[in-house]
């Protein structure tokens, strides 16, 4: 059974910028460029019926598209770093989407995610990396940022059980609505009959 998670995709130009951060850190296992993503909610292993319910509920989400940018890099695991990541600039629409997905998962009986949502793109998993090597790596790349990009969909992805870092498959795609072309009703009476 594949492990499921809900994510935002990283567009090609931002992924190429991220790929330039690869290297220069002993003990790092770098994530392949095509596997970069921003996890909104890890779901885990589940039976087909529950997975279908999750898809059905996610398909009902109606939220606007929004802009994101990647900014800064950091590491998880302060005393014993286990991964390095690129940060995501705060975006209220992203946090609202993530919160709605979390509510849906809990209503379907999935346990609450115990970790606080910290949007990021994992760049590498670390194995036996020395804290000082990680600090040196981060210091040299701290001013990283990408140009803003539009997020017009979120996806349900799966991963095979592995050491982590892919390969990931997109199982379902859920569009966000286009705010630029949404009809707001203002021209309803502007035209004579």
From TrEMBL:
UniProt-annotated catalytic positions:
37, 120
Q: Record's superkingdom?
A: Bacteria
Q: Which family does it belong to?
A: Belongs to the 2H phosphoesterase superfamily. ThpR family.
Q: What chemistry does it catalyse, as a reaction equation?
A: a 3'-end 2',3'-cyclophospho-ribonucleotide-RNA + H2O = a 3'-end 2'-phospho-ribonucleotide-RNA + H(+)
* InterPro entries the UniProt entry points to: Cyclic_Pdiesterase, Phosphoesterase_HXTX, RNA_CPDase
The yes or no answer to whether the keyword Hydrolase is present is yes
Q: What is this protein called?
A: RNA 2',3'-cyclic phosphodiesterase
> Where does the chain cross the membrane?
none
Motif interval(s): HXTX 1:
37-40
**Which Pfam families does the annotation name?**
LigT_PEase
